[in-house]
Design goal:
124 residues, alpha+beta, 5 helices, 6 strands, 29% strand
């Protein structure tokens, strides 16, 4: 059963370019973690409201950052132990530089996968 983390970063608008550059650099460390099976880094660029959902409309682009620019890091591991080791490696190498870019401490959501689906793996 896969072990996953979704991490939400709220980045100071004036630090967004530096944060993206830092995360691209950290990618090399992240990708080398034992047991890592999936890694995604996402910049929030859209929002959606109930009117759009009910109408089946596309989400709206976010045109400005008010308090922060939000990013999500999603990574998936084969075990909690490999996840823990990866966290230590990230902490030892990039944690302080990442924290300097943030408005508030990042949020971590951890759990084991209940189900998953991937079109590319499913063969469609």
């Amino acid at each position: 059963m896969a072990f996953t983390e979704l991490c939400i970063y709220q980045v100071k608008p004036q630090m967004a370019a530096e944060f993206e550059s830092l995360m691209l650099e950290a990618r090399r460390v992240l990708e080398q973690q034992e047991g890592l099976s999936l890694l995604r880094f996402i910049k929030r660029g859209y929002r959606i409201n109930m009117e759009q959902i009910k109408g089946g409309l596309s989400p709206l682009a976010i045109t400005r950052a008010v308090k922060s620019v939000k990013y999500m890091l999603y990574w998936e591991f084969d075990t909690k132990e490999h996840y823990g080791a990866a966290q230590k490696n990230l902490y030892d190498s990039y944690w302080k530089a990442i924290e300097r870019c943030l408005v508030a401490p990042h949020d971590k959501y951890l759990g084991e996968e209940l189900f998953g689906w991937n079109r590319h793996i499913a063969g469609e």
